[in-house]
């Protein structure tokens, strides 16, 4: 999709949906909210050559507002299901009640594979991971700790004390995760020397709602993370940048970008993995992998909770593909 006319139609559709979303009285889960965000995701899913940064200022402003609305809606959805899960005696036995739990299973498997392939090949599985922006329903940490990194301690950082209270209730009754899942109520910009203790730092998609905020967080992490530690970020590409902020690898000063994955199927977020304080090399090759050749399966959306619909009603007929920009070992 490369023509000016197609880009114009795309932008017009996104603006129409934004107009409807912005008029909603609440973004808490409801039929209207779910329908509009599903429409938005389906509009932004098809691979597009549109370059968001080239759009006029008024469209940039709408995009910025739309990303904030997406973040607010996701926060409400996570809080709703975190509260529901906490009503069970053993919340972790009922994670499947969250309608997009299977997305997290696939995402976490994919990110684990990326991490082990690029970040832990020589050092082995990380002992301590920090997850920045964990929220009231920290499914990435829970799934990674439960299925993939069973000896790793997860330190979850969120600026919202209520979110951490809700999240901690989910693991309190589990004898294993209650010991390996730790919650910190902090602005990550106030966390300094502790960052040196982590082998890997995950940065959620909605930490830093615009380029300036995200770069500020990255610069802070670069200042305090340990040499050779790993930074994993979630980004967006093409029309998906209407849903999430974009991480430009050029903004990761002080890090060597090891790999960037841009999904071109019905998956939302790109995944960026970088290592601190390794000189950037120019030995970069482009690889293309068909979806069914990846052991990890599809990289599923990290934050988007409105994607279940198009997983089973995918309007795209082309085969799923992930573009990898990586450095050969």
TrEMBL record:
Organism in which the protein naturally occurs:
Helianthus annuus (Common sunflower)
Q: Which SUPFAM superfamilies match?
A: S-adenosyl-L-methionine-dependent methyltransferases
Asked if the Swiss-Prot or TrEMBL record annotates the protein with the keyword S-adenosyl-L-methionine, the reply is yes
Q: Give the EC number(s) listed in the UniProt record.
A: 2.5.1.43
Matches recorded under PANTHER family: NICOTIANAMINE SYNTHASE 3
Q: Which domain of life is it from?
A: Eukaryota
Q: Is S-adenosyl-L-methionine among the key words of this record?
A: yes
> What EC class does the entry list?
transferase
The family note in this entry says: Belongs to the nicotianamine synthase (NAS)-like family.
The protein here is known as Nicotianamine synthase
InterPro entries, alphabetized: Nicotian_synth (IPR004298), SAM-dependent_MTases_sf (IPR029063)
Query: Which BP terms does GO give this entry?
Result: nicotianamine biosynthetic process
UniProt keyword list: S-adenosyl-L-methionine, Transferase
Annotated catalysed reactions: 3 S-adenosyl-L-methionine = nicotianamine + 3 S-methyl-5'-thioadenosine + 3 H(+)
Q: Any stretches that span the bilayer, and where are they? A: none
Give a short account of what the protein does.
Synthesizes nicotianamine, a polyamine which serves as a sensor for the physiological iron status within the plant, and/or might be involved in the transport of iron.
Gene Ontology MF annotations:
nicotianamine synthase activity
